[in-house]
Structures are given as structure tokens and as C-alpha cells.
Design a protein that fits this description.
Among the domains are: about 95-205, Glutamyl-tRNA Synthetase, domain 3, CATH 3.90.800; about 270-335, Glutamyl-trna Synthetase, Domain 2 (Glutamyl-tRNA Synthetase, domain 2, Orthogonal Bundle), CATH 1.10.1160.10; about 345-405, no CATH class; about 415-505, Arc Repressor Mutant, subunit A. It has 19 helices and 15 strands. It has helices at about 30-45, 60-75, 100-110, 120-135, 150-155, 205-215, 230-240, 270-275, 280-290, 305-310, 325-340, 340-355, 380-390, 400-405, 425-440, 450-460, 465-475, 485-490, 495-505; strands at about 15-20, 45-50, 115, 165, 175-180, 180-185, 195-200, 200-205, 220-225, 245-250, 255, 320, 360, 365-370, 375-380. The strands form 6 sheets. Strands 3-4-7-8 form a 4-stranded antiparallel sheet. Strands 13-14-15 form a 3-stranded antiparallel sheet. Helix 16 packs across helix 17. The longest helix has 16 residues, at about 30-45. The structure holds one RNA strand.
RNA sequence: GGCCCCGUCGUCUAGUGGUUAGGACGCUAGGUUUUCAACCUGGAAACGGGAGUUCGAUUCUCCUCGGGGCUACCA
């Protein structure tokens, strides 16, 4: 029984959906599809529906559903209806909608628009191989079509294995106007009588999608181009069921650098991985939208709000785009530089903790303890450290290796690190001692200005700034590259600075 | 193999029947500078090929070549 009234009038506001199947973590490609759907919905004041397609019971896992929802939310792509929020067309998990599909399958069977097929997999494989060998499209030619429906249902009742196929019309053209690709035609003869359900309670993807999109009043199906060839099948099912057709828009695929569909093997594809590495959601979204959309301007940076304003399906690219992680990383660095220091610091702290540099002081609010030295430091102090590296950071997870010297008791480095260009040890030692002397006077007035003054003065006495500034910086950081010696000395404080300089001087 | 989609620098792209074919990432040379980064200036780098239409094609048409997707009792 079908008691849903056919509602052929389009809804006033567009309704779009993201239909991920929880068989793995949120994939970059899914996130991109989500972004396009989200922008389209928000721009047109429509609804963005999240529907979990978990009809494949073996492969669907709750933890993946959780990962998908969490990371979508992290990206800022908020949905209006979904398994977690409910909505007027609940439930939003296909596994909970099984009974909704059954009447449609029964109807197709009753109206003889679908039929039971008893062919074995071996038969089908043989047929496909034969078809391939003579250059015909592989498809089911309708062997079981002739079986009397009465007889068929008897056989099914007796337990004979069977699947349900749609009677596909022969030699008809199914055409649809894709919002991105334009008009696309398919000949039904190439499709054959495809399977729409394993049985009355196990609908297959193409059938479930059509019914759900109808029941949920989806007006626009915006999805990856890998679904183009499913579209004629879905249109045929909709026709057989007398359901209205949504608009279609197929997004070009995201490709790996080897030009293949983005794959787990070669690329990082899970959004959670990017999140853990310290990519910012703004950077990810900005990067991804530009991979397949351009408003026609020489512009690279867009916020989600600006995109909602400017986005159009017409400007979506037709060709697939290669995922260029270098560009993503550049953009992430850009967004890190734009971020406020307190926010950036808050993002960095978990990485410092994970790296065993820092421990949160349990009761003291906003205080941290440096693990090695047991010193208690404030959030403000950590901000100073992070501030030194804000313009050098590309990915937040890099922060520990950049600032490690603030958290270590002793620095380990080769004495040669202290040598500037072709200077000899004596000269460097002398420079270091001059720096120590100049800096010692400042103990009570340890300001950036004074440090600068003292070091530059010492340098000018020697005649070459590098001769003193390089070893000072190296002694303070133990690194080839770092922030400037003035800044580092200032943040490190008088005591540690002098200690490290003296230790360095003794090494030479 | 069959069906479908796509084709401007290495990559993401802008663009027009006549442009020095523009921007960005990356690369590179300088500048700034104690290093690195950031920033500034410059450079190398593209219309897949062949016909046709046209006074003129990167742009329009056809063919070809190349790349990709789909081809499940997965989604």
C-alpha cells in the first residue's frame, strides 16, 4: 500500500541532500560534495538534508557514521535535517526506512514493471563475458522476464533464491539536463534489466535513493560525477513508480596527482586526518571550492559566507581537478597567519601536550607546566612563543618541532652549529662573550628594545652582525633555522638566555 | 571492449573571433635580513593534434588523439 500522495509540484525552496554511506571515514570527495550542496542550499534559503545510506549492512559501521557527522560539523557544513537532528521526513538512516520501500517494490511487482529473477551468479558472469567478447554492453537481457508472476512468487515462497529486476524498456532514450554537464542521453538498451532489490526487504541503492529523494522532497541531486551512469537507472525507476524527477547536477571528480580518482592508497583522503595534522576547516573549504569552481575572477580567498553569496552551479568546472596538497598547505599557512594569536595558541597547545612538552595544571585555570623543567607558565607566555612562529607555521602539528627549545632543559647540538660562515671558533667565542656581556647588564630591564640595542651594539663593535647574531640564535635554539635571536632571547628570559650563551661559549 | 564525461602553464584556473593569453600554488633569480619564514620585485612555464568556417582562430564545427568515470545481488 502506498499512502504517500504524489506531489509533483516543486517545493518553493530547494531541498538538497548529502547521502554518504558509512563505510569509511568522511572522505575529501564527500566533503566536497557536501560543500557544494551546502552552498546551494544556503544561497537559495533551502534545506540541506543529511541522509545516511547504510543499506549495506556488512560494510556500514556506526563509528564511520559518527566520524562523518563530526567532521562535517567541524567543517562548518551544518545540515538542517539528519539522523542526529531528526526532521519532518525522519528517519534519516536508510536502515530504519526498510519498511518504507517495501510497498514500492510490491507495487512494481504487482504492476509487472519488475519481476523475480532466478538466474545464478555463474549464469550471469558467463553471459557478461560473452557479451564483452562480442563487443556488446554487459547487461541482463531478460531471461526470467517471461516467467509467470504467479509461478515466480510460488518459487520464492518455497525459498528459491531470487532477486528483483526492473523491466527496462528497449531502445528508448533517457535524457536529462544536467545542471553542470548539460544534456545527457542514454539508450535504455545498454542498461538491461538491472537489479533493484535483493528481496522485498533489501532494496538496492538505486531504488532506495529514488524513493527517499521522493519522500524527502529532494529537488536537486548534487553529487559526484561517478554517479552519472546511475542517473538513467534512477530516472527509469522514478518513471516506473510515477514519481517526479529531481534536477541533477554532477560534480567533476577530485583526482590524485596520478589523475585517478582520489584513492586511499596514494593520498590522505580522510577529513579527520587533515584535522589531526592541523589543517584549518576554512583552509580546507577554501581550497576545495576552488578545485572545481571559479566565479570568473582572479581571487583565491573566500570565507564560507562569501561563498554562499557568490556560488553558482553554472560556474562549476566540467573537468576533474587534481588535489594539489602544496596549494592546500600554502592556503593553510595563509589562514594560520590570519588567525588571532589566542585562537592559534589554543590550537597549538594540544600538540605540545601530546609531544610531552606541556602538562595542563589540573586545578589552576589557564596554567600549564613545562614537563622537563617543572616551571609553571601562563597562557600569555605560550602565546608569546606561538607568536614567534605564526608566520612560519604551515600546519599546526608542526609546532612542537619548531618551538621545542622553549621546553627543554638542555639543548643538544653540534658545536659547529655555532659557527657563522667562514669564521673560526675563536671569533665566535669572542662574539658570544660580548653578547653575554652586553646582555648581562639588562637583567632588570629585559625588553625587546634593550636586547636589540645591546646585541646590535656588540655586533657593530665586532663589525659583522652575522658573526654574533648567528651563534647567539643557534645557542638559544639549537637550530639551523628559527625565529630571530632578539625575539627568542626576549621570550626565553634573561636567565635562560645567559645560561645558554655561556654554555655555548664553553663549547668553543 | 561498451556507454558517458572531459581537454589553456607541472597544478588550480581567467579569458576573447584580432590579447604582450591574465592570476594563484609550486619552481627560480633578486630585494629585505643574522638563519628560516613572511613580505616586495623579476623570470621560466600553457591554448593536445589535424582539417573545416573565417580576412583572422586558443575561442565556432567535425575528426582524431589523450585523460578520466561507470560497467556489483556496494553505495
Amino acid at each position: 500500500m502506498i499512502d504517500q500522495k504524489l506531489e509533483l509540484s516543486a517545493p518553493d525552496r530547494p531541498r538538497v541532500r548529502l547521502a554518504p554511506s558509512p563505510t569509511g571515514p568522511l572522505h575529501i570527495g564527500t566533503a566536497r560534495t557536501a560543500l557544494f550542496n551546502y552552498l546551494f542550499a544556503r544561497q537559495n534559503r533551502g534545506s540541506f538534508v543529511l541522509r545516511v545510506e547504510d543499506t549495506d549492512r556488512q560494510r556500514s559501521k556506526k563509528k564511520w557514521e559518527k566520524d562523518i557527522l563530526e567532521n562535517l560539523a567541524w567543517l562548518g557544513l551544518n545540515w538542517d535535517e539528519g539522523p542526529d537532528k531528526g526532521g519532518p521526513f525522519a528517519p534519516y538512516r536508510q536502515s530504519q526506512r526498510i519498511e518504507l520501500y517495501r510497498p514500492y517494490i510490491e507495487r512494481l511487482l504487482k504492476e509487472e514493471k519488475a519481476y523475480y529473477c532466478f538466474c545464478t551468479k555463474e549464469d550471469l558472469t558467463a553471459q557478461k563475458e560473452y557479451q564483452a567478447s562480442i563487443g556488446e554492453p554487459p547487461r541482463y537481457t531478460g531471461h526470467c522476464r517471461q516467467i509467470d508472476p504467479e509461478e515466480a512468487s510460488q518459487r520464492v515462497k518455497k525459498g528459491e533464491p531470487a532477486v528483483i529486476r526492473l523491466k527496462t524498456p528497449t531502445d528508448q532514450i533517457v535524457s536529462f539536463k544536467d545542471q553542470i554537464c548539460g544534456k545527457t542521453d542514454f539508450n535504455t538498451s545498454e542498461l538491461g534489466d538491472f537489479i533493484i532489490a535483493k528481496n522485498l526487504d533489501e532494496p538496492l541503492y538505486n531504488l532506495a535513493v529514488v524513493i527517499d529523494d521522493f519522500l524527502m522532497k529532494i529537488s536537486h541531486v548534487i553529487r559526484g560525477a561517478d554517479h552519472i551512469s546511475n542517473t538513467p537507472k534512477q530516472i527509469l525507476i522514478a518513471k516506473a513508480l510515477d514519481l517526479p524527477q529531481p534536477e541533477y547536477a554532477h560534480l567533476p571528480l577530485v583526482l590524485s596527482p596520478n589523475r585517478r580518482k582520489l584513492s586511499k592508497r596514494e593520498e590522505v583522503v580522510a577529513v579527520s586526518d587533515y584535522r589531526n595534522q592541523g589543517y584549518l576547516p576554512q583552509a580546507l573549504m577554501n581550497f576545495i571550492i576552488l578545485l572545481g569552481w571559479n566565479e570568473g575572477a582572479d581571487r583565491e580567498i573566500y570565507s564560507l559566507e562569501e561563498l554562499i553569496d557568490r556560488f553558482t552551479l553554472e560556474k562549476v568546472q566540467r573537468s576533474g581537478g587534481i588535489f594539489d596538497s602544496k596549494r592546500l598547505t600554502w592556503m593553510n599557512g595563509y589562514y594560520i597567519r590570519q588567525e588571532s594569536l589566542p585562537v592559534l595558541t589554543r590550537m597549538c597547545i594540544p600538540y605540545l601536550i601530546k609531544n610531552n612538552y606541556l602538562v595542563e595544571v589540573p586545578n589552576g585555570s589557564k596554567k600549564y607546566q613545562i614537563k622537563e623543567t617543572k616551571e609553571i607558565v601562563s597562557l600569555g607566555y605560550l602565546e608569546k612563543i606561538i607568536g614567534l612562529y605564526q608566520e612560519r607555521l604551515k600546519v599546526v602539528s608542526e609546532i612542537p618541532e619548531l618551538v621545542d627549545y622553549f621546553f627543554k632543559k638542555e639543548l643538544k647540538y653540534q658545536p659547529e652549529l655555532l659557527i657563522w660562515k667562514d669564521k673560526d671558533k675563536k671569533e665566535i667565542k669572542n662574539a658570544l662573550n660580548r653578547a653575554i656581556k652586553g646582555l648581562s647588564n639588562l637583567k632588570r630591564d629585559w625588553s625587546l628594545e634593550k636586547i636589540n640595542e645591546a646585541l646590535i651594539q656588540a655586533a657593530d663593535e665586532i663589525g659583522d652582525r652575522g658573526t654574533i647574531l648567528w651563534p647567539v640564535r643557534a645557542a638559544l635554539t639549537g637550530k639551523e633555522n628559527s625565529a630571530s635571536p632578539f625575539d627568542v632571547a626576549y621570550v626565553l628570559g634573561a636567565q635562560k638566555t645567559l645560561e645558554r650563551l655561556e654554555k655555548a661559549s664553553k663549547l668553543l
